[in-house]
Amino acid sequence: MGELTDKAKGLGNEIAGNIKQAAGRASNDPRLQAEGIEQERRGEAQNLKGKVKGALGDKV
Questions:
Q1: CB-based contacts of 23: which residues, under 8 Å, 6+ apart?
Q2: CA within 20 to 30 Å of 46's CA: 22, 35, 53, 59, which one?
Q3: C-alpha closest to that of 17 among 1, 35, 44
Q4: Sign for the pseudo-dihedral over CA of 29, 21, 32, 30
Q5: pLDDT digits (tens, 9 = 90+) for 31-54
Q6: Is 21 helix (H, G, I), strand (E, B) or coil?
Q7: Which residue numbers delimit the CsbD-like domain (predicted)?
Q8: Contact 41/21 with Cβ under 8 angstroms?
Q9: What is the helix (H) or strand (E) element at residue 5, kind and residue range?
Q10: Are 13 and 39 in contact (CB under 8 A)?
């Protein structure tokens, strides 16, 4: 995957994770909130991967 693909997927996971966290808080569901935190972190990692690929020229 290229830099932009990784960044886009990362952003999508961050957004979905934030939504899950909010839903978990609103419904008092700690499991859903934890899933949201995990998904947000996964998205942050994907975004970082995209930034590294951009810096190294997509050769990673």
A1: 29, 32, 36
A2: 22
A3: 35
A4: negative
A5: 999 999 999 999 999 999 999 988
A6: helix
A7: 6-56
A8: no
A9: helix 3-26
A10: yes
From CA 33, how far away is CA 52, in angstroms rounded? 29
Q: Is the pTM of this model over 0.85?
A: no
Q: Measure Cα distances from 50 to 5, 15, 18, 22, 47 in Å.
A: 7, 17, 20, 26, 5
Q: Can you read off the two tokens belonging to residue 12?
A: 């999508």
Confidence grade of residue 5 (pLDDT, cut at 50, 70, 90):
very high
Rg of the chain on CA atoms, in Å: 14
Quickly tell me which residue has 């972190």 as its tokens: 41
Q: Give me the amino acid identity at 60.
A: V
